[in-house]
């Protein structure tokens, strides 16, 4: 079930909210858990068993870590391997087999495997739980239903943000629902829905049209148009989903961490990763980078640690060499900036010209990365980038469509809106206290909701990019 669907907006969510807000506090968790199971089972009921197995494995694993303290490391390893076994099988099995088959004389059969939606997200949440118990940052949850709620909670189940157990353990047991939270939650949800329906989907239509063609069949400018369109699509698609998830969390009394903080204003790739998919980057920092030694080690070991983290970041996103290369691409810039002590450079004051050039450098880095990320294979990514940077001779007779085919007046307006909303001009508009301004914001949000619903009803194009990760 999609947040941006009529079924969710006008049947599922109103029914759950009515029950939740009308019920006694002690019934809130059972209602939310039941709703989460229905939400997940709506699209893929057969994969509920995998999610339930994940809950059971981590429930037993955490209790065993506390009970058998002397063997807690072995128990942690076995629990982590059990969690990862599901992820590896459903997400990476055929990718591994395909790469093995590239070896001369090897010919294994691939399997007809469909990846359960959200498995990357709820697996990482389960891993954070047992790791937190292992490190003593929280107690093992003795109520399996409360642990199930943490892993299965529907607002962030499918595409994050990745919620770490120690951040919400107390909220599972004790949280408050009040008018201010519900009011802000509704506003965040509408904002995210508008990002998704009005910007991301329109940008996605442009990007899909261009990336569906071979790179020698469109001009250099069209190649840049496709790269910009996908750059905005993935940001507004994913940040829109995160806004909706955070908004729903607030409505039900949970405070989830922010997942995006205007990443496209960054002046370095290091800064970009402090602002992009924050829940994933902090997860890797806490559970991979720091355990490997972080930066409290030799410079060479630190470089290796960063390399491992970004290769794993690429692999996490999908079973394709494009994602691995994308991870390596970002890792290269992060390591280079680390070696040149970008942190110290950031702390210094610079002229507007220097800041502008740094911003252009960062845009080049992440936009080039998004082309690799979006491409179906490495060869396509290479050819597309060659076109973008004028390294491919384009025969005008091979160009199928003019630029106007991809972007008309509406698309230009959406592009301008995407650029404006990528910078923190209206960062605090949901928090205005002045009554006239607050009233204006509320009217504007109702208008956005109306437009989003109309668009939802009219369009069949409505994918969430991160559902396949």
Q: Number of helix segments?
A: 20
- Radius of gyration, in Å, reads 23 Å
- Poorly predicted runs: none
Strand share of the residues? under 5%
Structural class call reads mainly alpha
User: N-to-C SSE series?
Assistant: HHHHHHHHHHHHHHHHHHHH
- Tell me the number of structural domains: 2
Give the quaternary arrangement of the chains.
single chain
Shape: globular
Major pleated sheet:
none
Mean pLDDT over the full residue set: 90
Task: Say how many strands there are.
Answer: 0
Gap between N and C termini: 16 Å
Helix proportion range: 55-70%
Features:
mainly alpha; 469 residues
Describe this protein's structure:
- This protein is mostly helical and 469 residues long.
- Helix content is 70%, strand content 0%.
- It folds into two domains: 6-176, no CATH class; 181-468, no CATH class.
- It has 20 helices and no strands.
- The mean pLDDT is 90.
Task: Detail the topology: elements first, then pairings.
Blueprint: H1 6-22, H2 28-43, H3 48-67, H4 72-100, H5 119-134, H6 144-152, H7 154-157, H8 165-173, H9 179-211, H10 220-251, H11 269-275, H12 278-292, H13 299-317, H14 321-339, H15 342-347, H16 352-374, H17 378-388, H18 403-406, H19 409-421, H20 435-458
Helix pairs in contact: 1-2, 2-6, 3-4, 3-5, 3-6, 4-5, 9-10, 9-19, 9-20, 10-16, 10-17, 12-13, 13-14, 14-16, 16-17
């Amino acid at each position: 079930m999609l947040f941006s669907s009529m079924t969710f907006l006008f049947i599922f969510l109103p029914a759950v909210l009515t029950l939740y807000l009308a019920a006694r506090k002690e019934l809130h968790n059972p209602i939310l858990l039941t709703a989460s199971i229905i939400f997940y089972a709506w699209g893929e009921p057969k994969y509920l068993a995998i999610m339930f197995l994940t809950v059971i494995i981590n429930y037993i694993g955490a209790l065993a870590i506390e009970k058998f303290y002397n063997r807690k490391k072995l128990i942690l390893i076995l629990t982590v391997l059990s969690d990862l076994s599901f992820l590896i099988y459903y997400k990476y099995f055929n990718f591994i087999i395909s790469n093995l088959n590239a070896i001369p004389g090897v010919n294994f059969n691939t399997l007809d495997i469909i990846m359960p939606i959200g498995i990357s997200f709820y697996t990482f949440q389960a891993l954070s739980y047992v790791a937190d118990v292992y490190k003593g940052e929280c107690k093992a949850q003795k109520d399996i239903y409360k642990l199930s709620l943490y892993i299965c909670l529907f607002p962030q189940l499918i595409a994050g943000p990745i919620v770490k157990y120690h951040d919400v353990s107390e909220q599972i047991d004790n949280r408050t629902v009040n008018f201010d939270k519900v009011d802000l939650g509704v506003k965040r949800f509408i904002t995210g829905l508008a990002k998704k329906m009005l910007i991301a989907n329109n940008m996605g239509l442009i990007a899909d049209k261009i990336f569906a063609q071979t790179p020698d069949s469109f001009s250099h400018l069209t190649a840049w148009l496709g790269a910009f369109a996908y750059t905005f699509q993935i940001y507004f698609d994913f940040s829109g989903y995160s806004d909706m998830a955070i908004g729903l969390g607030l409505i039900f009394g949970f405070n989830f961490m922010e997942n995006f903080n205007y990443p496209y204003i960054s002046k370095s790739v290091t800064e970009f990763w402090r602002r992009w998919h924050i829940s994933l980057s902090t997860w890797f920092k806490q559970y991979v980078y720091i355990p490997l030694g972080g930066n409290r080690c030799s410079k060479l070991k630190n470089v290796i640690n960063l390399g491992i983290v970004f290769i794993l970041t690429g692999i996490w996103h999908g079973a394709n060499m494009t994602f691995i290369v994308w991870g390596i691409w970002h890792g290269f810039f992060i390591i280079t900036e680390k070696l040149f002590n970008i942190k110290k450079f950031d702390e210094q004051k610079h002229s507007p010209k220097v800041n502008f050039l740094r911003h252009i450098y960062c845009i080049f880095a992440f936009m080039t990365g998004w082309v690799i990320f979006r491409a179906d294979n490495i060869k396509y990514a290479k050819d597309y980038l060659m076109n973008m940077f004028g390294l491919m001779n384009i025969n005008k007779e091979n160009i199928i469509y003019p630029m106007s085919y991809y972007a008309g007046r509406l698309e230009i307006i959406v592009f301008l809106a995407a650029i404006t909303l990528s910078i923190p001009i209206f960062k605090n508009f949901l928090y205005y206290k002045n009554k006239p301004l607050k009233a204006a914001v509320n009217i504007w949000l109702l208008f956005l909701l109306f437009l989003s619903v109309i668009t939802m009803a009219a369009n069949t194009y409505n994918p969430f990019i991160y559902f396949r990760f």
